[in-house]
Amino acid sequence: MADFEEATNDGEQEEEEEEEEEQASPEEKLQIVQHLLLSSPPGEFDDVLSDAMALVPGDLVSRPMLAGIARAYNNANLRCARAADGTLVLLSERGELEPTLYAVPGSGAYRVDPRGTRSFAPRSTRGPFERRVDHVALTAEAEAGGGPAAPGAFAAERDAVAAAVGAYVGARYGAECKCGAVYESDDASELAVVISGESVNLRNFWSGNWRSEWTVVLGDGEALVSGAVKVRAHYFEDGNVQLQTSKTCGEATVAAASPADLGAAVAAFVEAAETDLQNGLQEMYDNMSAETFKAMRRVMPITRTKMKWNIHEISLNKNLRK
């Protein structure tokens, strides 16, 4: 009996030691919170933050640390911060001047090197085309003073591409939060095009974003365009379904006889690539019930009777039974 009690005590002690070993350290908890936040579906960063903070001590994630996580999330997902005057500021690594300072889309005043090296004409104050942002609240300051930096060597081409891309985004993107920006390289004949659209309707259990980034290498009478499109959607009514897909577009040559021709050609290339991805997704969903779900079913059900896939026959049988 004594041996049995001793063995029982030893077993309980081992279980307690295992429970103690399973406790995550503060660093591990912080990594988990960061992973959850960076993986948040479109428009659900605040909801994930609220749920994650309920699982850890309140002082685990400091305000500066949270701002850093939000900054990484916003830049990766090309989110838009809105100012009180309605101005949208596209948040991306392309347009980031400082951790909380961004160039305003469509300003045409600032040159951002696609490789990440920023170079600007000296100035004592910020220009009117810069905005400070709060990454956590996703808001931008209402105004910014000062004069713009000197225009770059390819300002005309940048402005033409920005106008064409802006018209395309305005006509084709139905999202309330949509933005397009074109940044000019300071030491290379390249333009960076960034487009983002986000729709969030959490009351009806869905959200999604569509974002793309493009590089335009200018040449003599022509340009090389390449880029990638990323789509993410989340539907969570009575479930949790997410879609994440992307499309990479290799270099293609477009006409660039004039800035206007370049803008029209770049916008047409982007539209064709994004439309192709949209049509592919639509075709996939149209065929899902007839092909994908059918392939997931086993050949014979328990009744050993083959499933009748003729919808009209099933409807007819239901009507005859009434």
UniProtKB/TrEMBL annotation:
Q: Which residues form a coiled coil?
A: none
Cross-referenced PROSITE patterns: F_ACTIN_CAPPING_A_1
Among InterPro entries, the record links this protein to: CapZ_alpha, CapZ_alpha/beta, CapZ_alpha/beta_2, CapZ_alpha_1, F-actin_cap_asu_CS
Q: Where is the composition biased (Acidic residues)?
A: 1-25
Entry keywords, A to Z:
Actin capping, Actin-binding
Task: Give the function comment from the record.
Answer: F-actin-capping proteins bind in a Ca(2+)-independent manner to the fast growing ends of actin filaments (barbed end) thereby blocking the exchange of subunits at these ends. Unlike other capping proteins (such as gelsolin and severin), these proteins do not sever actin filaments.
Q: How is the subunit organization of this protein annotated in UniProt?
A: Heterodimer of an alpha and a beta subunit.
Give the family this protein belongs to, as stated in its UniProt record.
Belongs to the F-actin-capping protein alpha subunit family.
Protein name, per record: F-actin-capping protein subunit alpha
Q: Which organism is it from?
A: Aureococcus anophagefferens (Harmful bloom alga)
Query: Which lineage is the organism of this entry classified under, starting from the top rank?
Result: Eukaryota, Sar, Stramenopiles, Ochrophyta, Pelagophyceae
Gene encoding it?
CAPZA2
